[in-house]
Design a protein that fits this description.
With about 375 residues, the protein is mainly alpha-helical. It has one domain. A two-stranded antiparallel sheet has the order 1-2. The chain starts with a helix and ends in a 12-residue tail after the last helix. It is found in: Membrane. Its main location: membrane. It is a multi-pass membrane protein. Pfam families: EamA.
């Protein structure tokens, strides 16, 4: 019995730790998105071509799983859902990735990953505008979300207008051209922050529309595959106009291959699956709370791999954005917990499924079983329905 209890405790411990382990691992994987993206831009690869290859590889990676796992549950495609998928493919794979990589080109990987933490606050603001989010200023949770949104924007604005002295975590050599503290470098930082924020607005709009689309097309893997496919087709049309030279489309056994492969498979394919799995277990607020970890990992890897510098303005702005993010996350967590309690209260009259066993009941049944054997079957074990 002790061995059974020990195995049960291990299973419970792993079940409780599973969402944390998945999200921590995902943040390390997502950090590679910024590192590979910045590296491929530093090598001169066109961001338009990079986006095409990234979404194409994401489609190839997701398609087999979507086809086999959701073959029976996939709903029929309708015209409204099809149009929404086309728009989703434009918002995230085309608009968001294009402006985010453009802003990263002018700044750094750590700078980009820091400002991207503003996405939950921007999503909340857009949800209020389109009336998908209720806002009651008399409630503490609504006040926390409003204050967190304002603090997040303040941190992003601080990073855009203030640079400050530079710090080297792992390198002490020469700096990169865009980090030399010159006036042109400062203007590049401001422009880069604006481009990244534009990408954040597109990504937040993507989340809003995705939450609507998934209700009419409840097949997450198939929907993600179709979005990547639409993004690959639309970004191809943009890239054919922007990059007319065949040399820009060349692929070799170097950064032009491994960067799109990694970002497509990990940052798009694997991220969709892990985020969906964790959201089903702990909700979307739980997944959002781990975003600052990616910012820290990118800052360390950016300095070690790319030789990037950290500036005082980025450090202060990152802390301010993280505080604002957790204020919004706290408010959303209260909403999520109240909604969950309401759904439980609404189902109080329903029969409760047996999801766990009581050790005392097991012992009683075991004793009755022994008596049953000793008395030659005269005693019977009765099962009582609760």
């Amino acid at each position: 019995m002790s061995a059974v209890k020990f195995i049960g405790k291990l299973r419970l411990l792993f079940s409780n730790a599973k969402p944390y382990l998945l999200m921590i691992g995902l943040q390390f994987g997502m950090a590679g998105n910024y590192i590979f993206g910045k590296d491929v831009l530093n090598h001169g690869m066109s961001r338009f071509v990079f986006i095409v290859y990234r979404n194409s590889m994401a489609t190839i990676a997701l398609a087999p799983f979507a086809f086999f796992l959701e073959r029976k549950s996939r709903p029929k495609m309708t015209l409204p859902v099809f149009l929404q998928i086309l728009f989703l493919g434009f918002l995230e794979p085309v608009f968001n990735q294009s402006f985010t990589y453009l802003g990263m080109k002018y700044t750094s990987a750590s700078f980009t990953s820091t400002i991207v933490n503003a996405v939950p606050s921007i999503t909340f603001l857009i949800a209020v505008i389109v009336r998908l989010e209720r806002l009651k200023l008399r409630e503490i949770r609504s006040q926390a979300k409003v204050i967190g949104t304002l603090v997040t924007f303040g941190g992003a604005l601080l990073m855009a207008i203030y640079k400050g002295p530079a710090f080297n975590l792992f390198h002490s050599g020469s700096t990169t051209p865009h980090e030399n503290g010159s006036p042109s470098s400062h203007s590049h930082q401001t422009a880069g922050a604006i481009y990244i924020l534009m990408g954040c607005v597109a990504l937040s709009s993507f989340y809003i529309l995705q939450s609507i689309t998934v209700k009419g097309y409840p097949a997450e893997l198939s929907l993600a595959t179709l979005i990547c496919l639409a993004g690959a087709a639309e970004s191809t049309a943009v890239a054919l106009v922007a990059e007319r030279h065949s040399r820009a489309w060349a692929v070799g056994w170097d950064y032009r291959l491994y960067a799109p492969f990694y970002t497509g498979v990990v940052s798009s394919g694997l991220a969709y699956y892990v985020q969906g799995l964790v959201m089903k277990i702990r909700g979307p607020v739980f997944a959002t709370a781990f975003n600052p970890l990616c910012m820290i990992v990118v800052a360390a890897l950016g300095s070690f791999v790319l030789g990037e510098q950290l500036h005082l303005g980025s450090i202060i702005g990152g802390v301010v954005i993280a505080l604002g993010l957790y204020s919004v996350v706290w408010g959303k967590a209260k909403d999520y917990s109240d909604t969950k309690l309401s759904s439980i209260d609404a189902g109080d009259t329903k029969s409760l499924p047996i999801t766990a066993t009581d050790d005392s009941k097991i012992d009683i049944i075991s004793e009755n079983s022994e008596k049953h054997k000793l008395e030659g079957g005269r005693n019977r074990v009765a099962f009582v329905k609760v």
